[in-house]
Design goal:
The chain is α/β, with parallel strands linked by helices. The protein has one domain: Alpha-Beta Barrel (TIM Barrel), CATH 3.20.20.70. Helix content is 47%, strand content 14%. The chain contains 8 helices and 6 strands. A 6-stranded parallel sheet has the order 1-2-3-4-5-6. α4 links the parallel β3 and β4.
């Protein structure tokens, strides 16, 4: 597999708090040039990108980002608005407080609610593995799968650690 093929599986991302429109434009131009899977950007830029770039790239945005503390209703509203403005993919962050409390049914219901609000869109669920026990990671693999999300992701990039090979192996074992 060459670099170009690998890049078709990469979400070219800029989510820093100080991201400017020129930086977002540069990100989009690079995504088009390198044919990345998507550009992942703050929700405030989705409509502007859709207006400026049309269907030349796939827009992904984040909801409940980066801590996942928003209520389910707010996350659904964020997702619906982002989709209406041009996002084709949504990266949502789970509520880690619910996870730590063992409320996996609530987490699954939230993911399912967002999934149902996004017909035809890709939903990716960020679980922030650096804060989780092995049992919590396994339970989240099950909840994410049962709720019908398309992908599970290890981290926001804002936690204490990012992806690890161990977590990827765990996902592979419990999701496939």
């Amino acid at each position: 597999m060459d670099i170009r093929e690998i890049l078709t599986h990469v979400d070219h991302t800029l989510l820093k708090a100080t991201a400017t429109w020129p930086e977002i434009q540069s990100l989009c131009d690079e995504a088009i040039e390198w044919q990345t899977a998507s550009v992942c950007v703050p929700p405030s830029y989705v409509k502007r990108i859709a207006d400026a770039y049309g269907d030349r790239l796939t827009i992904c945005t984040v909801i409940g980002f980066p801590l996942g503390y928003q209520t389910t209703e707010v996350k659904i509203a964020e997702a619906v608005q982002a989709a209406a403005e041009g996002a084709k993919e949504i990266d949502m962050v789970v509520n880690l407080g619910d996870v730590k409390d063992g409320n996996f049914g609530l987490v699954e219901a939230e993911i399912r609610g967002i999934r149902e609000s996004l017909p035809g869109k890709i939903l990716k669920v960020i679980i922030e593995t650096c804060y989780l026990t092995l049992n919590e990671k396994v339970a989240l693999c099950e909840a994410v799968t049962a709720a019908g999300a398309d992908f599970i992701k290890t981290s926001t990039g804002f936690g204490s650690a990012g992806a690890s090979l161990e977590d990827i192996r765990l996902f592979r074992e419990h999701i496939g």
